[in-house]
From TrEMBL:
<dbReference type="InterPro" id="IPR028939">
    <property type="entry name" value="P5C_Rdtase_cat_N"/>
</dbReference>
<keyword id="KW-0521">NADP</keyword>
<dbReference type="Pfam" id="PF03807">
    <property type="entry name" value="F420_oxidored"/>
</dbReference>
<dbReference type="InterPro" id="IPR036291">
    <property type="entry name" value="NAD(P)-bd_dom_sf"/>
</dbReference>
<comment type="similarity">
    <text>Belongs to the pyrroline-5-carboxylate reductase family.</text>
</comment>
<dbReference type="GO" id="GO:0055129">
    <property type="term" value="P:L-proline biosynthetic process"/>
</dbReference>
<dbReference type="InterPro" id="IPR029036">
    <property type="entry name" value="P5CR_dimer"/>
</dbReference>
<dbReference type="GO" id="GO:0004735">
    <property type="term" value="F:pyrroline-5-carboxylate reductase activity"/>
</dbReference>
<feature type="binding site">
    <location>
        <begin position="6"/>
        <end position="11"/>
    </location>
    <ligand>
        <name>NADP(+)</name>
    </ligand>
</feature>
<dbReference type="Pfam" id="PF14748">
    <property type="entry name" value="P5CR_dimer"/>
</dbReference>
<dbReference type="InterPro" id="IPR053790">
    <property type="entry name" value="P5CR-like_CS"/>
</dbReference>
<dbReference type="InterPro" id="IPR008927">
    <property type="entry name" value="6-PGluconate_DH-like_C_sf"/>
</dbReference>
<dbReference type="InterPro" id="IPR000304">
    <property type="entry name" value="Pyrroline-COOH_reductase"/>
</dbReference>
<feature type="domain" description="Pyrroline-5-carboxylate reductase dimerisation">
    <location>
        <begin position="164"/>
        <end position="259"/>
    </location>
</feature>
<feature type="domain" description="Pyrroline-5-carboxylate reductase catalytic N-terminal">
    <location>
        <begin position="4"/>
        <end position="97"/>
    </location>
</feature>
<protein>
    <submittedName>
        <fullName>Competence protein ComER</fullName>
    </submittedName>
</protein>
């Protein structure tokens, strides 16, 4: 089975690394293209046997499964371009949340799926969110699920929770990286701790925290209770968080969903012209 990836930006590269290092495919079975071709050749420096294609059409020609890893408003112009090269045996996979598999099926003469990755897949961890078109072959569907298991925990989701699920698994690492950076900055400004020391402590704390959750020693709620002693230092900090966080995360989800709906609107306008 040959894999194609059109778009080697951040998430395209994450998928390339995950597919190869997770053992899903060998570099020689992977065909990639990027609009700025030099960026695709940058990837080839890591995997010399990978195939860089000069055009999206060539990528489709040599691939069985094709990931579309471009911005939402670039997806359908790209699909229109590669459509003549597709047949019923191909499977086109979008990684973008505003475009449903039903929309893909409507415009493509092949099998379709949506697989939303996370940057955590780069380390062969985290979640991928899966949705499948009605025309997909059951064997191919199972093959894609098993492939994703080699570098993630695949979860099949309904379309109506796509955005919020993506917020948690895909945007979440960026959100929490921002919060950790703010915590480190405040620690340096309020105390005598050196920045590098604070970063090291925070990194090791995050890794340890993840292991505790991964191994099932604690739930989020139980972990908070175990660390927080009534009248203690952690409790004093939790009181600040309770006062200050307020509806911050409500506003965050509203903002991401507003952007999601705006993208959907622009895509529909694009398709109606």
């Amino acid at each position: 089975m040959n894999w194609g990836i059109i778009g080697t930006g951040n998430m395209g590269k994450v998928l390339i690394h995950a597919l190869i290092e997770g053992g899903v495919t060998e570099p020689r079975q992977l065909f990639i293209h990027n609009r700025t071709l030099s960026k695709a050749f940058d990837v080839k420096q890591d995997y010399p046997d990978i195939n860089v294609c000069p055009t999206p059409e060539k990528t489709v020609k040599f691939s069985d499964i094709i990931f579309i890893c471009v911005k939402p408003l670039d997806v359908f112009p790209l699909i229109k371009r590669i459509q003549p090269e597709l047949n019923q045996e191909h499977c086109v996979i979008s990684i973008t949340s505003p475009i449903s598999v039903q929309q893909l099926e409507e415009y493509l003469p092949c099998q379709t799926a949506r697989i939303i990755p996370s940057i955590t897949n780069r380390g062969l961890f985290g979640v991928t969110l899966l949705s499948f078109g009605e025309q997909i072959d059951s064997n191919l569907k199972e093959y894609l699920i098993q492939s994703c298991k080699l570098f993630s925990s695949p979860i099949i989701i309904d379309d109506e929770i796509t955005r919020v699920s993506s917020d948690i698994i895909s945007c979440g690492p960026a959100f929490f990286s921002y919060l950790i950076q703010r915590m480190i900055q405040a620690a340096c400004e309020e105390t005598d701790i050196e920045y590098d020391n604070a970063v090291e402590l925070a990194e090791k704390m995050i890794v340890g925290f993840g292991k505790l959750i991964e191994k099932g020693y604690y739930s989020f709620e139980n972990l908070e209770k175990k660390v927080t002693v009534k009248g203690g230092v952690t409790g004093a900090g939790i009181e600040v968080l309770e006062r200050e966080v307020g509806d911050m995360f409500h506003k965050l989800f509203r903002a991401t969903h507003n952007k999601y709906y705006d993208d959907q609107k622009k895509i529909m306008e694009q398709l109606s012209t």
